[in-house]
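Team,

Forwarding the record for the chain on the shared tracking sheet. I've put the sequence and predicted structure together so nobody has to dig through attachments.
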Amino acid sequence: MLWRKLAMQDGAKNTYEAAIQQSLNLLTFLYQPWVKLYHTLYNVGILRPKELINSTVISVGNLTVGGTGKTPCVEYLAKQFEEMRKKPAVLTRGYRGPRQQYCLMNRGSKLHIEPASIKTQSLADEPQLLASNLPDIPVVVSPNRYRSGLWVQEEHGANVMILDDGFQHRALKRNLDIVLIDASMPIGGWRLFPRGLMRETIKACRRAQVVCLTKVDQNPEGVTALHESLRQQFRDLLVIQAQHTPEDFWDPKNSKSFPLETLAGSSVGLISSLGDPHGFEQTVKSHDFNPLWHCIFPDHHPYSDKDLEVIEKAIVQQKPEFLVTTEKDWVRLKPFMKSGTFKGIPVRLLRIRFQIVQGEAELNARLRSVLVS
């Protein structure tokens, strides 16, 4: 995506890029004062967050606009709380879904929707993925997290609320703020949105108790310096490290999983609409696959017939042995590829696991310490 490329670079390579960057600088100048005002109103107590009594609230969020691997982290936390014999629920705003509140729950490998009047094809992608991967854990979608938290307490007995993308959503009081930072971020961060990727400056980490550096395997040279910089700036902050480890390939046609080695050396075509598509591509390349091309679409992109024509054109130019996409993308691609194939080429979903490689014991201790009895 052109915007992400320009957001991550300081200068422009031509007059076209320079014009776009100047326009983004103006928008940043107009937008950021409102962001500062919003946080100031909470910092000084003019606005006050509401509290969910008898529940622990854990926020998982970013300093940047997408691309840190937040969804796998939310899954990890929900499973950890289940092991602690708690009843977790995920509260999310959703993206490009129905405006009204709804709940998704995976019961017996079947996705249940409350209310039943909500149509499946209108659902946001990430809540569907979370619900599919978290059996019997309610995923509630609503712009009002306090109201959805009260509802899931009453209807499902949930006592741990995980706020998906909750760091900037300050209307709900939380017991712990976990902020994810891509390990490729330069010390000091990128420029502020929309000129850059940063929703807030690095100083916002003062509100957090835990920072998780993600995708550390993709930037082994820079992660140590970033880790130490954060620890020196924020003495009370727990800084941990994680990576998104490819687990296996899922064959949606036959509902079977295959070890990663089964596709080693194969030519593949990549399809993604992610916050960090190049991270996905880098992961594929690091496991001895041969990407012939990569069809990249905007994050949360609603696929259409025109998009399928783009993919078909890529296939005609260079025919791969497999089409590889992500679980999140499959939620939106499935209606166009119900057979698990496209133009005779089998589809494989690269499934990943959130793996903490440094600081897992300290994180679990911190989670236990904030649980409401």
